[in-house]
């Protein structure tokens, strides 16, 4: 059974960085890409980027390029997302989600529970 | 970026009603479209992918149709458990994937 569990809520000051972890189980880890999606209160989800876990290739939203990094620890079956130079508008719930396809770039079939990141001075 | 627009933004239905939600893309996404259901405080849950394929475990009262720029999600007989916000998402243009603004479904 597929399970995805994320790290806990974070409170950060403007200009700081945050790292959110996504721990997976129940499937062949390297066979599926992982995406990161965030959702500000009352807003539509916003796609941030994804990583092909097998070859570690990444693709990021142009809006966030330069501030976001996604990497993976294969031995721990974990994908991490780091967002730097935080601003108040980065306050959101951050989700990781598994790509349904074997080659990436597909619908998202299993999601973590979400991690609230609050940016406030 | 491909823009996704849903209508309506809010809808109210009675139990047993048939409801339809529309999603329009600013350019063709072929059939690369998914529908998700999101309940308050929870992550989105995949209902439909490739425009019309029902995800495993999703009740058969949910169905999807459409292609290119116009898609619909239909609930054939609304149940109380269907109260949620529904989002469409395109994955044709892989950077970035984009979501519609959501349709909130309420029960009368």
Describe what you observe in this structure.
The complex is a heterodimer of chains A (121) and B (108). Chain A is mainly beta and 121 residues long. Chain A is built from no helices and 11 strands. In chain A, a hairpin with a 4-residue loop joins strand 7 and strand 8. Chain A is globular, with a radius of gyration of 14 Å. Chain A starts with a strand and ends with a strand. Chain B is mostly beta strands. At the A-B interface, strand 10 of A face strand 5 and strand 10 of B.
Give the arrangement of secondary structure elements:
The complex is a heterodimer of chains A (about 120) and B (about 110).
Chain A: E1 3-6, E2 10-12, E3 18-25, E4 34-39, E5 46-51, E6 58-60, E7 68-73, E8 78-83, E9 92-99, E10 108-111, E11 115-119
Parallel strand pairs in A: 2-11
Antiparallel strand pairs in A: 1-3, 3-8, 4-5, 4-9, 5-6, 7-8, 9-10, 9-11
Chain B: E1 4-7, E2 10-13, E3 19-25, E4 33-38, E5 45-49, E6 53-54, E7 62-67, E8 70-75, E9 84-90, E10 98-99, E11 103-107
Parallel strand pairs in B: 2-11
Antiparallel strand pairs in B: 1-3, 3-8, 4-5, 4-9, 5-6, 7-8, 9-10, 9-11
């Amino acid at each position: 059974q597929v399970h995805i569990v994320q790290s806990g809520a974070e409170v950060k000051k403007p200009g700081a960085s945050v790292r959110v972890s996504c721990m997976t189980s129940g499937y062949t880890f390297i066979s599926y890409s992982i995406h990161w999606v965030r959702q500000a209160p009352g807003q539509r989800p916003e796609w941030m980027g994804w990583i092909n876990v097998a070859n570690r290739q990444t693709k990021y939203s142009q809006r966030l390029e330069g501030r976001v990094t996604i990497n993976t620890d294969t031995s721990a079956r974990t994908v991490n997302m780091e967002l730097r130079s935080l601003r108040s508008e980065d306050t959101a719930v951050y989700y990781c989600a598994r790509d349904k396809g074997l080659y990436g770039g597909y619908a998202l079939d299993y999601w973590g529970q979400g991690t609230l990141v609050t940016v406030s001075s | 970026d491909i823009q996704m627009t849903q209508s309506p933004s809010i809808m109210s239905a009675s139990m047993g009603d048939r409801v339809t939600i529309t999603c329009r893309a600013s350019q063709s996404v072929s059939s690369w479209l998914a529908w998700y259901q999101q309940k308050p405080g929870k992550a989105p849950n995949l209902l439909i992918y490739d425009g019309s394929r029902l995800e495993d475990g999703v009740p058969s009262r949910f169905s999807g149709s459409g292609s290119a720029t116009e898609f619909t999600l239909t609930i054939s007989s609304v149940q109380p458990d269907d109260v949620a916000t529904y989002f469409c998402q395109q994955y044709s243009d892989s950077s970035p994937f984009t979501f519609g603004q959501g349709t909130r479904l309420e029960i009368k």
